[in-house]
Amino acid sequence: MTAGDAQRVRVIDSHTGGEPTRVVFGGGPDLGGGPLAERLDRFRIQHDAFRSAVVNEPRGSDVMVGALLCEPADPASAAGVIFFNNVGYLGMCGHGTIGLVATLSFLKRIEPGAHRIETPVGTVSAVLHSNGEVTVNNIASYRLATNVEVDVPHYGKVFGDVAWGGNWFFLVREQTLELSLQNIESLTNFTWAIRQALRQQKITGTGNQEIDHVELYGPSDLPSVNSKNFVLCPGKAYDRSPCGTGTSAKLACLYADGKIREGEIWKQESIVGSVFEASISVRDGKVYPSIKGSAFVNSEAELVLDPRDPFCMGIRA
Ligand code: PYC
Prior knowledge:
By secondary structure, this protein is α+β, with helices and mostly antiparallel strands. The chain has helices at 36-46, 48-55, 94-106, 184-200, 244-256, and strands at 7-16, 19-26, 65-70, 79-84, 89-90, 113-119, 122-128, 134-137, 142-152, 156-164, 168-172, 213-218, 227-232, 266-269, 275-283, 286-293, 295-305. The chain has a 17-stranded mixed beta sheet that branches. Pyrrole-2-carboxylate (PYC) binds at residues 19, 65, 90, 93-95, 167, 233, 239, 241, 243-245.
C-alpha cells in the first residue's frame, strides 16, 4: 500500500463572520438519492468515520463545521447539503448555508439570484446578492416553551426559552456574565453546565429531541446593533458567527413576545464582533426568519485519507 492508494476528498474552506465551513464537493460517500433526512441517516449509520476524518483533528478542529454537498432530490434545487461537526450532525446551519452559497459561487456553479437548498430539516432558499452577501430564508422557526426553569449545579436556577430555528436552542433570559472574548472560558463553563442540566432534567425540544445549543445574549456596543450573543454548539465549541439558526430561534422568541414586527431589521452581533442582519416574515401564522451575512473562501484543498495513518479518521473523544 502507498499514499497513492489513499482516498482523496476535495474541499473548500470558508468562514462566515469567523465561523468556518468546510464544503466537501468531491470524494465523499455516496448516500444515494431521496430526501436529505434519509441520506443523513445513511451518513450517520454507514459513514460516521468520514464525518470525523473531515472535521476533527488533525485535519480539522472542534470549531469546524462540515457540509457534504449532495445532489438535490428535486432538480429545481441548486444543491442538497448535510451539515456536521466534531460530535455529530446539524439539522440546518445558517452560517454554513452562507458559506455553501459563497463556495458554489467560487466554483462558478451559481450566479447571483435566488437558489433552493435542500437540508435534512427542509428546503431553504438563499439569495446570492451581486455584492457577494447572502440572505438565507430559513425554515419556519418557533418558540416551544417560555421561561423554563432549569436547576444548574453550582450556578442555581436559570430561566430560558426553548426554541427551534433549524436546531434546538435554550436561550437564557437573564444572566450577568460579560459577553466578551476575554471571558470565553466562563461563558463556556456556564453554558455547558446548562446543557448538561437540560439533559439530566429531561428538558427537550419537540419529540424529545435534545436541546444541544445554548445561547446567551445581551446588549451590543456597536451602533445600531440590537444584541450580542454567545452560542455554545453541541461539541462544546462556541459559534464565532452570530449563529443563523440561533438568531432564527431568537427572532421567533422576540415575535412571540411582541418585540419584533414583520420586516423590521434585527442586527445580531457575535462574540467575535461579526454581525448578521435578520428579519422575519409571517405566513399562515408561522415565523420565517431571513439572515443576511457574508462568507469568504480561504482555502481549496484535497484531503488525503491514508489508511496507514492511525489517525486517518480523526481523533474522536
Ligand atoms: O449558523 O446556524 C448556524 C450555526 C449552527 C452551529 C454553528 N453555526
